[in-house]
């Protein structure tokens, strides 16, 4: 700009930033925390990341239930490591939300007051140790299908967090499958436990991909912003196609009489999902919603002294720095 040129108006620079944002998306590059972003993108991204973080943290509860009752030291060590990974996933994700201006206290408050959601799957009970295996196999398996494309999400910090998370999820899935394999080669009672867990978790796992595409109003915008790369139904189909041969190898029956290979489509067909059940669980009426949120609230309140101590320590450090300066 030369001295004689008029200074750009605010509207001009806003348009300039907007074009830059759209270019980054079009070129498949990443939006970074200091870049200008449309307010709606920021809000959508914070909500999605928070919901994901909440799912990781609440997801510690159903399996955490079995840590003290794991059948061997080896199984206990594996389960402890897995549940601890989920805590780590929650922490990276809350940090990613903070890079967008999301406030951790505010997000936690929204979770424990029921104003923000987490994955519907964690509102189901874990009734036997076979559930630990089935959660690893199906729930972490579904999470992998959902999350691998998110490694290319348009928001840089989220995409990068997802790379590490997916590596750990893959360990979670394997430990689940290996546990089930062990049980399937055990006694008849163990095989029955596995089949029972599969019966209870199969349909809720398919619901993890969210409502069907024709009932998913936010999908189009999220795909345009490259926050999301595939629709709910595409990912659900991918999961079914991947899982059916694994079920055969394991020797369990998936509880769906309509499940069959469709050579024309090159995919498995499957039966109708009970969307009323999903709606009920999402709106708080699942078997364990109240228990999960109450437990999270109690843990948050029990941890108040840790947050206060950390804040006091940070203040003291700051004062020392100021005195030294
Ligand atoms: Fe996770
Ligand atoms: Fe996991």
UniProtKB/TrEMBL annotation:
Coiled-coil blocks: none
Entry GO MF terms: phenylacetyl-CoA 1,2-epoxidase activity
Keywords: Oxidoreductase
Main EC class the enzyme belongs to: oxidoreductase
Catalytic activity, EC: 1.14.13.149
One Pfam family per UniProt: PaaA_PaaC
Domain of life the protein comes from: Bacteria
One of the record's GO cellular component terms: cytosol
PANTHER family registered for this protein in UniProt: 1,2-PHENYLACETYL-COA EPOXIDASE, SUBUNIT A, PHENYLACETIC ACID DEGRADATION PROTEIN PAA
Matching NCBIfam families: PA_CoA_Oxy1
Protein known as: Ring-1,2-phenylacetyl-CoA epoxidase subunit PaaA
